[in-house]
């Protein structure tokens, strides 16, 4: 199968491309410069330009590109970059897909469980409405930007991804060294739920979305049993055999991270109902196994 991927050099995109190529699929990587080989397709999300000819013959497009939510302090300009990188990029991909003589059979768009906002102790699935605040509003606009593809009859799936557990990057890429040094601890009260997913399961789930014709619309990519930050902290201590005595109080987080601290302290108890009902099987459904898999 020929599959186009945006965000192919990011944490998830790199793992997905490696997995697809290992199984003999042809991958077309979208790059923000002049293409230098048949495996590359030029695009400019800011200008909403895609070399649509490069997508010809693709049976699937996986769109993962977007500015990192936790990469910088949330200034007004960076919040604008977070939103525009997702909305403009998704609109460009969706319009390019829609204009093809033979569109791909599926467009898998990255999204996030940030859509739900703070759910507290309440478990939510794909039927829940959007929450309130910056990230939920970004997710709503992000998903709505894919309308041209849906209107063209392309099966469109939104991969609402949780916290991906990986040693190479993302939140856990920063946490593992701290905990290994014995400096790890809970954040705030530790009672907030954090919906995570192992990198192995994240890649497998994305491929499941490509292959499963019955899946359309939002699909939560999270492990089936969300846990609290306190439980994650205890599991990190057991796996790494390190003390977890430190606590970062909520006021200190707000001082250090600014508005982004709200995303760190929010409670999100998100369940993968659509994945499970479609027959997906998690290799690492529990937090401790997930952590050990990331460290292998």
Quick overview:
This protein is an alpha/beta fold. The chain has helices spanning 11-22, 76-98, 134-144, 147-151, 170-180, 199-211, 229-240, 250-257, 261-265, 273-277, 287-295, and strands at 2-6, 26-31, 40-44, 49-50, 60-63, 106-112, 123-124, 155-161, 163-165, 185-187, 193-194, 196-198, 217-221, 227-228, 246-248, 269-270. The protein is built from 11 helices and 16 strands.
Explain what this protein looks like in three dimensions.
This protein is of the alpha/beta class. The chain has a domain at 2-162 and 199-222 and 271-282: Rossmann fold, CATH 3.40.50. It has eleven helices and 16 strands. The strands form five sheets. The chain has an eight-stranded mixed beta sheet with strand order 4-3-2-1-5-6-8-13, sandwiched between helices. A two-stranded parallel ribbon has the order 7-16. The longest helix is centred in the N-terminal third of the chain and has 23 residues, at 76-98. The chain is globular. The mean pLDDT is 92.
Write the layout of secondary structure elements.
Blueprint: E1 2-6, H1 11-22, E2 26-31, E3 40-44, E4 49-50, E5 60-63, H2 76-98, E6 106-112, E7 123-124, H3 134-144, H4 147-151, E8 155-161, E9 163-165, H5 170-180, E10 185-187, E11 193-194, E12 196-198, H6 199-211, E13 217-221, E14 227-228, H7 229-240, E15 246-248, H8 250-257, H9 261-265, E16 269-270, H10 273-277, H11 287-295
Family: Belongs to the NAD(P)-dependent epimerase/dehydratase family. SDR39U1 subfamily.
Domain NAD-dependent epimerase/dehydratase: 3-212
Protein name: Epimerase
Task: Please give a handful of descriptors for the protein shown.
296 residues; Rossmann fold; alpha/beta; NAD(P)-bd_dom_sf; SDR39U1; two-stranded parallel sheet
